[in-house]
Amino acid sequence: MQALVDRRLIVLTGKGGVGKTTMAAALGLMASSSGRRTLVVEVGEQSRLSAIFGVREPEPGSETRLAPKLSAITVDPDRALLEWLQALGGRVSGRVLASSGTFQYFAAAAPGAKELVSMVKIWQLTRSERRGRSPRHDLVILDAPATGHALGMLRSPDTFGAIARVGPIAKQTAEVRALLSDHERSGYLAVAHGSEMAVTETLELQAGLQEALHRDLDGVIVNGLMPRRFSAPEMGQIQALSSTGKSRSGSTEVVAAAVHAANEVHDRGRFQHAQVARLRRRGLTVLSVPFVWGGELDLHGLEGIATRLEHGMQRADLD
């Protein structure tokens, strides 16, 4: 899996709320620390990465430096569609175009238009050059929306390609499709929790990728995984405490609370690891990020996740 960061584009997606942006930032840190010029792309109107790295929020559509060799940019689909149509329309100003009925009708009626122009923008970022020489970015990491919307973006070349069969639009559509289908230039990672719903959505994502692009997930990052704290004999000893009624130095209530807490942690960890086993039975490579007690994730914590991902990828290559 270490070769994954040698590609031009990595797409991260998964169920909403599983920590995709955090994993995209950690993967960006991992790649940039090895010398790769890395760009993390968010889709939407807000830039969450700037807050994680403690830098000022950038202007819409502009890159911001997060760390050495690591930058970020936010792609707003509405803005990208406007810029795209303006480029096709020549001298028509953005303000006039945005207020025209034609633009509003096109944005609403053309299936996959916003998704496609977002992917065109990302394709352009993988190709952008420094003064006509090598690409400015070695790696582009797409912090994609949640699974359903992400699959819509990845299917957009086919969805919109049914409308635009010739001309510059068709050419860009073909270029995006070629990038997304190329095993040497692009890769796909899912982010999930150790829950039944998140794992089921990950398996649906795998099926969607196979159907749309004939691609498989390169791996799954399971975030917030609880450890297996107790062995079966240890759980037997803990259960025995509840039958004694009182420990040597504690009250019955304290012992009961401790036994209950141990059972909760054990059952939760066992359930999560059973969900991870579902992924592995499908032949998927799993990288785990442990659950961390604490408040807001800081840069030091992010660096720890990056190190864990790197070690996990190295172990996966050895297996």
Order of helices and strands: EHEHEEHHHHEHHEHEHHEH
Rounded mean pLDDT is 85
The CATH class is: Alpha Beta
- CATH architecture assignment: 3-Layer(aba) Sandwich
* Beta strand count: 8
N- and C-termini, Cα separation: 11 Å
Which range best describes the helical content: under 10%, 10-25%, 25-40%, 40-55%, 55-70% or over 70%? 40-55%
The proportion of strand residues reads 5-15%
Residue windows where pLDDT falls under 50 for at least 5 positions: none
Question: Which assembly state applies to the chains in this document?
Answer: single chain
Shape: elongated
Q: What value does the Rg take, in angstroms?
A: 23 Å
CATH superfamily: P-loop containing nucleotide triphosphate hydrolases
Quickly give the structural class: alpha/beta
Major sheet: arrangement of strands = 3-4-2-5-1-6-7-8
Task: Characterize the main sheet.
Answer: 8 strands, mixed
Plain-language structure description:
By secondary structure, the chain is of the alpha/beta class. The protein has a single domain, classed as Rossmann fold, CATH 3.40.50.300. It is 54% helix and 14% strand. The protein has an eight-stranded mixed beta sheet with strand order 3-4-2-5-1-6-7-8, with helices on both faces. The mean pLDDT is 85.
Write the layout of secondary structure elements.
Elements: E1 9-14, H1 20-33, E2 38-43, H2 49-53, E3 64-67, E4 70-75, H3 77-89, H4 94-99, H5 101-109, H6 113-127, E5 139-143, H7 147-161, H8 167-181, E6 186-192, H9 196-213, E7 219-225, H10 232-244, H11 252-281, E8 286-290, H12 299-318
Parallel strand pairs: 1-5, 1-6, 2-4, 2-5, 6-7, 7-8
Antiparallel strand pairs: 3-4
